[in-house]
Amino acid sequence: MDPKSLHKLNDFVWEIPQQGEMRVPGRIFASEKLVREMDEKVREQVMNVAMLPGIQVASFAMPDAHWGYGFPIGGVAAFDPDEGGIISMGGVGFDISCGVRTMKTGLTREEVMPRLERLIDQFYNRVPAGVGSEGLIRLNAVQIDEMLLGGAAWAVKKGYGLSGDLEYTEEHGRVEGADPAAVSDTAKRRQEREMGTLGSGNHYLEVQVVDEVYDERTAQAFGLRRDEVVITVHCGSRGLGHQIGTDALRSLASAAQRFHLPIRDRELASAPISSPEGQRYFGAMNAGINCALANRQILTHLVREIFSDVFPEGSIRMLYDISHNTCKVETHSINGKKRRLYVHRKGATRAFGPAQIDLPLEYRHAGQPVLIGGTMGTSSYILVGTEAGMGAAFGSACHGAGRAMSRTQAKKQWHGREVIRSLETQGILVRGHSYAGIAEEAPGSYKDVSEVVDAAHQANLARKVARVRPLACVKG
């Protein structure tokens, strides 16, 4: 994308002026280098979203933005139901509530390294991962509905994890408004054997070490210290979430025609929030969020069991769990007036600032942990939400590095075996269920995560707290 085609507000905020059918401007948070690396399609999609009814303030793109389905990945938009606002499947995505959960081990790198290979082999052998992977849990129709209503709280009640985990999970592990009846039987059947599974694609289970602390005070509030080993899980709602998205495309596209919505891209299939189709999708999507939260909670239970087998002296404690493919009802202030909005975050992370009641008590004075995943061969980051970010983009930040090339291109350029060997020379152990999948996720196929995070930091969306470096990784 040519930066000259944008209005530069400052070094890290760029604007697409309101024009034509746009109801609000577009706003991109990025360095000039990152803007240049963005596909022109990102600009087009930001503008298309800005044309949707009921949109508030601006159509936003995060520093990791790239071309997505309808919305750009890294897109954020909020809609007011009182102004005819819409809900869009394209603003959530197919992997509903894909998210990141980071756990603290209480052990240092020096303590973990002698048994690291044993640990990652146990994770590889005992945590179900890969395309079509199935877990040991089998749910019947009644149990699936209970899970879709209860989320991570349901999983804890069933013995998967500790009740204290819920305090450190977005929405305390369960969102309101889930409607299992709005989820198709096909979607439910796809999830009967997929609970407690990692999946494939960019999902992972990673052993990491805190190798840099930028904000000692906030790191202390989060219970993080330099050289501590943490474990991170990245996954979502598996087949159920994808099927909810597929089903919604048809119903929302029909609703868009019936309500004569001005939609420039069929992938932006939407319905008025208050319509039967809009409410049905919202209920199904919330059920998908609860599915993802339950899935990550079960994986946490597996991680605890395996870790305690290898490191009886360790103790797995939650840092935080945050999603990046959701539509949430949130209250935000616009021109001094509090408004109840439906905030879409597609490949974007909630990044609430200090004093938010939803946060754990010991985090409340600091702000919400923001977990930004990198690649197998680079670093990931822990940031904290800011008060400025609440006003800048409805308390949102980037979610990862963002792809620099397609999966098809990546497979042409790299081979999985070579990627594994290369990472081993850097001291990073990789266990994968598919060489093709590892090639697709080669570190070179992604943008520079450090530059993406720096842009989010400089734009005041979230503030850097710590950097974590991979020691070992399980890929689907």
Topology diagram in text:
Blueprint: E1 7-10, E2 13-16, E3 26-29, H1 32-37, H2 40-50, E4 59-66, E5 73-79, E6 86-88, E7 99-108, H3 109-112, H4 116-126, H5 141-157, H6 185-191, E8 204-213, H7 216-222, E9 228-235, H8 238-258, E10 270-272, H9 276-310, E11 317-323, E12 325-334, E13 337-346, E14 348-350, E15 369-372, E16 380-385, H10 387-393, E17 396-398, H11 407-413, H12 416-425, E18 429-432, H13 435-440, H14 449-458, E19 462-475
Parallel strand pairs: 3-4, 18-19
Antiparallel strand pairs: 1-2, 2-3, 4-5, 5-13, 6-10, 7-9, 7-11, 8-9, 8-19, 12-13, 14-17, 15-16, 16-19
Helix pairs in contact: 4-9, 5-9, 6-8, 8-9
Report the count of strand segments: 19
Distance between the ends:
33 Å
- Mean pLDDT comes to 95
Shape: globular
CATH domain class:
Alpha Beta
**In the CATH scheme, what's the topology name?**
tRNA-splicing ligase RtcB
Tell me the Rg in angstroms: 21 Å
Low-confidence stretches: none
* The CATH homologous superfamily: tRNA-splicing ligase RtcB
Count of DSSP helices? 14
Main sheet attributes: strand count, strand direction, barrel closure:
8 strands, mixed
Structural class call reads alpha+beta
Q: Helical proportion? A: 25-40%
Report the CATH architecture: Alpha-Beta Complex
Characterise this structure.
With 476 residues, this protein is α+β, with helices and mostly antiparallel strands. The chain has one domain: Alpha-Beta Complex (tRNA-splicing ligase RtcB). The protein has 14 helices and 19 strands. It has helices at residues 32-37, 40-50, 109-112, 116-126, 141-157, 185-191, 216-222, 238-258, 276-310, 387-393, 407-413, 416-425, 435-440, 449-458; strands at residues 7-10, 13-16, 26-29, 59-66, 73-79, 86-88, 99-108, 204-213, 228-235, 270-272, 317-323, 325-334, 337-346, 348-350, 369-372, 380-385, 396-398, 429-432, 462-475. The strands form four sheets. Strands 7, 8, 9, 11, 15, 16, 18 and 19 form an eight-stranded mixed beta sheet that branches. Helix 4 crosses helix 9 (276-310). The mean pLDDT is 95.
